[in-house]
Design a protein that fits this description.
This protein is an alpha/beta fold.
């Protein structure tokens, strides 16, 4: 099986999105050139931010139709991250809510991509 190594998001402004994720996740921008930026997530997986108008073949997807999920340790960590992200002005789609898989909340990035934070089994 091939190694999973990239998560690519099609964005309106790759530089602005790189700054957003750099600030939000506290990870460096390791590559930035016209139309593309890259940040490390973990264990060799990179977040690529590709300017939507330069994607080939042309992007046909809509932001918000899928999610990037971030696991945290427990329900208090969900609450704390929710408060921090709401304090940064991120649009919150779902406030902290207990669901079948654990405590969770959902926010939007500037392009409308869903960011889900959850604590499994809480």
């Amino acid at each position: 099986m091939p190694d999973f190594s990239f998560l690519l998001l099609h964005v309106a402004d790759d530089a602005a999105s790189a700054t957003f994720y750099n600030d939000l996740l506290g990870v460096p921008i390791v590559e930035q050139k016209p139309g593309f930026a890259m940040l490390p997530l973990r264990d060799g997986v990179m977040l690529g931010l590709w300017a939507r108008e330069t994607v080939e073949p042309a992007s046909s997807g809509q932001s918000g139709a899928s999610e990037i999920a971030f696991a945290v340790a427990d329900a208090p960590a969900v609450e704390a991250l929710h408060a921090a992200w709401a304090g940064r002005g991120l649009p919150i789609l779902q406030v902290p809510t207990r669901m079948s898989f654990g405590m969770t909340f959902v926010a939007h990035d500037p392009d409308g991509h869903r960011l889900r934070v959850f604590a499994p089994g809480t």
